[in-house]
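Inverse folding, one chain.
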């Protein structure tokens, strides 16, 4: 059986993408074959599509770290033909052919049944970005309650940040959005931001080891100086989750805020989230944590639109979530 996929090839040292017709028999080994209805575009997909060997080691390759669709073949007792499922994280779209193809074949442990309350399309509007935001909320609520004070969110117009703002607001938290896109301030207000700080102002380098205590917590998606300034500005016993490093991987600060204010820094990785916990978090996203403004969070494209969208996400021009509707 043949299928259509967005394929990136390395040709004479350059990385070129095109839509190709592939054979389903050439998919990697796995217990479950899924016909993909929707995927989504993430920053990691853009890196894979432009030849980042830290993400994808060998080419040709089909990116797409998210996929939602229907099981068409399974040798696992856990899944039957016709099951609607979600596949995110692990190695999907990195070194395993991903969701930018009409079919994927993956290990059964990567698969989660679509919970009642979510459509396949809604699952991809949430996707890895929304799943990461939900992981962040889950960990943050262990230490910080709505009455403790404001929660600051960096990269607020991005996939993780936009869903995080929504989830925090729906759970009663007062949020402060950090963004470099003044034109998108109304969008951030719509998502639930009660206050907005410009990225330039917030990422200003402060040499002092500690700053005035302003925030009860934070969800950081960019790293670098923004994360440093959140940590320096946390109230006693505050906490911040961090899941990105697009600004920097370095953390240039002292340990004083950790010791003197007793703060916590929590790392978040959707790729490595334990299998046993995934279904429960997706159930939360389908029920009590389901974003009530999903319609405002996404833009829908096709495989043919991916090259332009990839350039836009790399240059910071996208907002919210971008989902990819596969040809059916």
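Residues assigned per position:
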């Amino acid at each position: 059986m043949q299928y259509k996929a967005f394929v990136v090839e390395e040709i004479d040292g350059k990385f070129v993408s095109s839509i190709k017709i592939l054979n389903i028999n050439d998919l990697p080994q796995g217990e479950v074959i899924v016909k993909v209805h929707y995927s989504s575009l993430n920053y990691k997909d853009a890196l894979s599509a432009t030849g980042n060997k830290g993400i994808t080691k060998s080419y040709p390759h089909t990116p797409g770290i998210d996929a939602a669709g229907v099981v068409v073949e399974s040798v696992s007792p856990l899944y039957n033909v016709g099951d609607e499922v979600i596949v995110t994280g692990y190695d999907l779209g990195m070194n395993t052919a991903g969701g930018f193809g009409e079919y994927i074949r993956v290990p059964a442990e990567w698969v989660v049944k679509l919970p009642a309350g979510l459509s396949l399309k809604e699952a991809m509007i949430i996707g890895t970005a929304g799943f990461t935001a939900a992981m962040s909320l889950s960990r943050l609520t262990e230490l910080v309650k709505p009455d403790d004070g404001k929660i600051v969110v960096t990269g607020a117009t991005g996939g993780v940040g936009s869903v995080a703002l929504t989830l925090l607001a729906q759970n009663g938290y007062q949020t402060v959005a950090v963004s470099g896109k003044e034109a998108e301030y109304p969008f951030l207000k719509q998502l639930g931001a009660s206050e907005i700080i410009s990225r330039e102002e917030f990422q200003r380098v402060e040499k002092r080891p500690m700053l005035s205590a302003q925030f009860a917590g934070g969800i950081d998606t960019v790293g670098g100086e923004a994360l440093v300034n959140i940590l320096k500005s946390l109230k006693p016993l505050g906490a911040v989750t961090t899941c990105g490093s697009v600004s920097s991987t370095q953390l240039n600060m002292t340990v004083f805020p950790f010791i003197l204010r007793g703060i916590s820094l929590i790392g978040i990785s959707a790729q490595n989230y334990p299998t046993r916990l995934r279904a429960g978090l997706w159930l939360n996203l389908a029920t009590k944590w389901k974003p009530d403004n999903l319609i405002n969070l996404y833009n829908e494209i096709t495989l043919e639109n991916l090259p332009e969208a990839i350039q836009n996400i790399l240059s910071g021009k996208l907002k919210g979530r971008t989902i990819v509707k596969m040809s059916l």
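The mean pLDDT is 95. Residues 118 and 286 are 5 Å apart (CA to CA).
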